[in-house]
Amino acid sequence: MAVPGAFTAEPGTRLEIEAVVIGIVQVCVVATSARGVHLRIDADAEAYGLAVRRVSRIAQSW
């Protein structure tokens, strides 16, 4: 994930973000690099399933 220049987070930091395609999700920072912040989405099975269906519907509309 690309982030604004002032944003910093250490691995292990838990965040809530709003992703345009999948909505509001809980994430954990797993690493940082010159390319940005690398996240793991922490979602239960139901929330993950809803996100996958939203992405699928968007992809089908392209």
Describe the structure in your own words.
- By secondary structure, the chain is α+β, with helices and mostly antiparallel strands.
- The protein has one domain (14-61).
- It contains one helix and three strands.
- The chain has one helix spanning 45-61, and strands at residues 14-19, 23-33, 36-42.
- The protein has a three-stranded antiparallel β-sheet with strand order 1-2-3, with no helix packed on it.
- The longest helix is centred in the last third of the chain and has 17 residues, at 45-61.
- It is globular.
- The two termini are 23 Å apart.
Which keywords apply here?
about 60 residues, 1 helix, about 25% helix, alpha+beta, globular
Short description:
The chain is of the alpha+beta class and 62 residues long. The chain is 27% helix and 39% strand.
How many DSSP E strands?
A: 3
Query: How many separate structural domains?
Result: 1
The 3D shape can be described as globular
Number of helices: 1
In terms of structural class, how would the helical and strand content be classed? alpha+beta
Uncertain ranges: none
Helix-strand topology string: EEEH
% residues in beta strands: 35-45%
Average pLDDT works out at 82
| CA gyration radius, whole angstroms | 13 Å
Please describe the topology of this protein.
Blueprint: E1 14-19, E2 23-33, E3 36-42, H1 45-61
Antiparallel strand pairs: 1-2, 2-3
